[in-house]
From TrEMBL, chain A:
DUF2157 domain residues: 11-153
N-terminal signal peptide: none
Record's protein name: Putative membrane protein
Keywords: Membrane, Transmembrane, Transmembrane helix
Stretches that traverse the bilayer: 42-63, 75-94, 106-124, 130-147, 154-172, 178-194, 206-223, 229-247, 259-277, 289-311, 323-339, 345-361, 373-390, 396-417
One Pfam match: DUF2157
Cross-referenced InterPro entries: DUF2157
Gene source species: Kordia periserrulae
UniProtKB/TrEMBL annotation, chain B:
Name of the protein described by the UniProt record: GDYXXLXY motif protein
A Pfam entry, by short name: GDYXXLXY
InterPro entries recorded: GDYXXLXY
Taxonomic lineage of the native organism: Bacteria, Pseudomonadati, Bacteroidota, Flavobacteriia, Flavobacteriales
Domain of life: Bacteria
């Protein structure tokens, strides 16, 4: 950005748009401080990478399990890196050292705590499973989120909390422990909110993707034996995402900076497409067992989605509300119908998807938004492709339909292009 | 956040991190020094853990308790009371849902499995023996190789037990520690 501006300055001075003095001031503003902060950022990134690699290296060296070493040497090797990390971090806090110090010490301490627990349990052959190990490690490192304003601590916390959810939530007959994952995640929420208050925070922008992605990946901790509940949970979660994505905070942000809206809208459509198959309702609804934890999760997510929608109605006028914000509610009703009559539910989902596609195409055409128009057409196309799997249609007719959809894409975009040129 | 709170939080974190690992060391060292030693007959197999490295999983002969009582919940913990024969091998004294105040024998907590064929099945909690990376697979091979030849092989795990805490200290194959047996 600064290079573009400084390159344009001679031309601006020549044409008397700005004075020579102003041009000098602009050059001084962009050049000096930026160089310093950029080099600092680079050092911090290398510091974090270095500390992470050293920490992981220690874990791997320990994992070799040196039989020849006496037990006390192994124990010293376990505690030494952790105490070194604690001293380095304590020193950087006491002397108020630079962020480079703090970030590096934080990352090093994070991994050395893991290495210490791992080696101690290795020395005494403790059979504890991977879940309890990751949980102990994450909990012991949670204060790192707050003792320095380390950015890497948030990412490490998020990664390990998600990893914990992945190993506890997936698999057959898993123990569902949603509460612990949500407790871990909520520990980093105050840091997330404070990063949102910073202007142009790259960390906040990254977290707008990582946090919803973490919740999305970890949702299996909320259900176990009832596949039908999963549909409902995911839809309510997407409902929450879409409504958060519509908050005034995201109004001036690009779609790429709004992970909630992207994940919410794409996820909603994928889920609707999955449930547009009759088999999804026919087979996944056979299981009558629903656990208490699943009921609590469904109610919590539903109330959460209603709450964020309610907040949005305070900020937005009725006409400004997007239909995506209410799909979770419509799906909830169709789900209840599906419990009694699976065929009607399937038909309703297909109608809903078709309606979404048509509305998006119309909206795209009215406002000359290529992305919205094409998104609507992609939904209709996906719906048609999905129906190919249900019905017996000859290959020739399938081919012709595909061909006409492709031609349709070209023609619609071309008409839109012409319309845009006219305006 | 105020500097005092930061120091307080940092101090608590440092103490928690050290105590969490140090108490494991203390508890296990106490059991090794003053606990009773039992032998559990077993067979090893070799998987690995991404953080703690290679280990062998032990498959124990003691894995069920005959009982007509079918009221056991899958996944719950129960107290396994142990006795020891003249050669030091462990045998089951009794399995109880609650801690028995008047049973003088050593006990360990076990996770219950299913009840079938008149027996309640369970897993002993010390089925992981960490080994040097290069040796774990060889340990499994050594066991399988010996078994294939039809040689009667004596494999047992040495476990120290005191007040419910247990420490697995060695796996012995035909009188030699599995670490040394692999070297040969």
């Amino acid at each position: 950005m600064s290079l573009k501006i400084t390159n344009a300055l001679p031309e601006l001075v020549e044409n008397n748009i700005i004075t020579e003095e102003t041009a000098q001031k602009i050059i001084a503003y962009y050049d000096k401080p930026k160089e310093v902060s950029n080099s600092n950022k680079l050092f911090i990134v290398f510091g974090i990478l270095g500390a992470a690699l050293v920490g992981l290296g220690i874990i791997l060296i320990m994992a070799h399990n040196w039989d020849e070493l006496p037990k006390f040497v192994k124990l010293i090797a376990a505690f030494f890196p952790m105490i070194l990390g604690q001293v380095a971090l304590g020193y950087s806090i006491a002397k108020n050292k630079s962020m480079l110090w703090k970030e590096t010490a934080t990352v090093f301490l994070y991994f050395s705590v893991g290495a210490c627990i791992a080696l101690v349990s290795q020395v005494y052959h403790i059979s504890g499973n991977l879940e309890s190990f990751i949980l102990a490690w994450t909990v012991l490192c949670t204060p790192l989120l707050y003792v320095t304003k380390s950015k890497s601590a948030i990412f490490l916390h998020l990664i390990f909390s998600t990893y914990y959810a992945l190993i506890t939530g997936y698999g057959y007959n898993v123990q569902t422990t949603p509460l612990l994952y949500f407790v871990l995640i909520s520990a980093c929420i105050p840091r997330y909110i404070s990063s949102m208050k910073e202007k142009e925070s790259a960390i906040a922008n990254a977290l707008h993707w990582l946090l919803p992605a973490s919740l999305l990946l970890s949702l299996p901790v909320c259900y176990d034996r009832s596949p039908q509940i999963a549909y409902l949970l995911y839809m309510f979660l997407f409902g929450i995402y879409i409504n958060i994505g519509q908050f005034p905070y995201f109004k001036n942000k690009s779609l790429l900076q709004n992970g909630y809206l992207c994940l919410g809208t794409i996820g909603t459509i994928i889920l609707l497409l999955l449930t547009s198959f009759h088999d999804a309702w026919k087979y996944d609804f056979r299981y009558g067992v629903v656990d208490t934890v699943e009921v609590i999760s469904v109610i919590t997510l539903f109330l959460g989605a209603c709450f964020v929608f309610y907040i949005n109605t305070k900020f937005q006028k009725l006409q400004q509300l997007s239909m995506f914000q209410l799909i979770f509610l419509v799906f909830g009703i169709i789900f209840l119908i599906g419990l009694v009559d699976t065929a009607t539910a399937t038909i309703l989902i297909n109608i809903l998807l078709f309606a979404i596609g048509i509305v998006l195409i119309k909206k795209g055409a009215d406002h000359i938004q290529f992305s919205t128009l094409n998104y609507g057409m992609v939904i209709i196309t996906a719906l048609i492709i999905c129906r190919f799997y249900d019905t017996e249609i000859s290959f020739a007719i399938r081919g012709l339909i595909f061909l006409s959809i492709g031609v349709g894409f070209f023609i619609t975009n071309y008409i839109m292009y012409k319309k845009q040129l006219k305006k | 956040m105020k500097k005092t709170y930061i120091y307080l939080l940092f101090g608590l974190m440092v103490i928690a991190q050290i105590v969490a690992s140090a108490q494991i060391v203390y508890k296990h060292e106490t059991v090794i020094n003053s606990g009773n030693v039992y032998k559990f007959t077993t067979a090893p197999i070799d998987p690995s853990d991404p953080f703690r490295g290679k280990y062998i999983v032990l498959d124990f002969d003691i894995n069920s308790f005959p009982t007509t009582d079918e009221d056991w919940n899958y996944g719950e913990k129960a107290y396994l009371y142990l006795g020891k024969n003249a050669n030091g091998y462990a045998y089951i004294d009794t399995l109880s849902k609650t801690k028995l105040a008047n049973n003088p024998n050593d006990y360990i907590l076990v996770e219950l499995g299913s009840h079938y064929n008149g027996k309640i099945h369970f897993d002993l909690p010390f089925d992981t023996y960490y080994m040097e990376e290069s040796k774990a697979y060889d340990a499994e091979l050594l066991y399988r190789e010996n078994n294939r030849r039809g040689e009667a092989q004596e494999v047992y795990a040495v476990v120290h037990i005191q007040e419910g805490t247990h420490v697995l200290t060695d796996v012995v194959v035909n009188g030699i520690s599995i670490k040394d047996a692999v070297k040969k």
